Amino acid sequence: MTDLNDLYQEVILDHNRCPRNFHAIADATHRAEGYNPLCGDRLTLYMKVDGDVIADVAFEGAGCAISKASASMMTDALKGRSVSEARALFDRFHRMVTMPPDRAVEDLGKLSSLAGVRDFPVRIKCASLAWHTFKAALEHEQRTSTE
Fold first, then answer.
1. pTM value?
2. What secondary structure letter does DSSP report for 146?
């Protein structure tokens, strides 16, 4: 289990150091700002939805390593998915990070590296900020907060 934890930690650190899709999208069709007042994480999420497909998704902002890594992995995971697939992935991710720590984790690929936040309830909001901001953007809400 230690090797797996080390791998998961390295995935998070890599996405924090070199976040994927870290830029604005000039012609975004959806946009929302997210804020986590507990630790000060802030991000702006940009999406370009073409029909029912998330053609592009990116973010800008600043925050802790977990927040930035989660946003980076989320953008990778959502790009090219249908809106309904993306909503279902939101539900699966949210369930994973909020379920009791003693429950088995569904395999969500690299996203599974964030399951460890379940052991630290205050960090759940860090990991889920980008996801709630994504959901707000889909619903054309301009802002969301993890309060």
1. 0.92
2. -
